[in-house]
Amino acid sequence: MLKLMTRRRWIADTSHGNTASLTGDQAAHLARVLRAEPGQIFDVVANGFLHRAEISTVSDREVVFTLHEELEAEAALPVHLLLAVFKFDHLEWGIEKATELGAARITPVLARRTEKHLAQAAAKRVDRWRRIALEASKQSRRTDLPDIDDPQPLKSALALVDSPHKLLLSEIEQQNTIAAALQGHAGKGGPDAEHNRALAFAIGPEGGWTPEEMQLFTEHNWQHVTLGPRILRAETAAIAALAICSALLLETSA
């Protein structure tokens, strides 16, 4: 059986006109490990657009591409994920998978029940989280990077959300499913059609949100939804919610 090969995809660090460059670790990997040479063809994302691109120069510090025709690409899932900070290894796995599933934005939230040492160390991990998102974007062949916000308290995080549909994954909710909450939400056309499809999900820390935090969600008009009868880890809940959301949005846009 003939196996079709896909070109490796890179996300440019810089671009100008019809050229784009990889620098730093990306350039070093392409030059040293993959032994790239001028004339080789790759897919390169530059300024949010996917191009067929040809290497023009190679060094350990910079690989420069000439951009050719623009290629068709899928848009990001219009989902803003508010994810409470929890154990870093689990959180980083969640960020990686949320990126692969297409989340457009991820805001790490310093919840009241986030462990103190994690809250104190979170700001120093943001660059690592963004690198994880970059690698996951390349691996999953995304044409963009999700925005990874700096960690912040819930009140500040809620102020960042402008999605018309705001869903709080809740252990106490038993009836209202994501599918029920989103039924018909993508049916509005017109110039605001894409915004009308935008969603925000909030997923709490181990131990859940405090009553004061739940009140903040209520004041900001978040709707409680359930993922079913089982108690899921936060990172599992994020993946399940994004997968359901992706399926529903594909169905309504078909």
Sheet with the most strands, sense and barrel status: 7 strands, parallel
Nearest-angstrom radius of gyration? 20 Å
The CATH topology of the largest domain is given as: Alpha/beta knot
Helix count? Answer: 9
Q: What is the strand content? A: 25-35%
The CATH superfamily name of the largest domain is SPOUT methyltransferase, trefoil knot domain
Just give the CATH class of the largest domain: Alpha Beta
Mean pLDDT: 87
- Listing every helix as H and every strand as E from the N terminus to the C terminus, the arrangement reads EEEHEEEEHEHHEEHEHHEHEH
Q: Architecture of the largest domain, CATH level 2? A: 3-Layer(aba) Sandwich
Q: What level of helicity do the residues show?
A: 25-40%
Overall spatial form: elongated
Question: Structurally, how many domains make up the residues?
Answer: 2
The end-to-end span amounts to: 32 Å
**What's the number of extended β-strand segments?**
13
> Uncertain spans, ≥5 residues at pLDDT below 50?
187-193
Structural class designation: alpha/beta
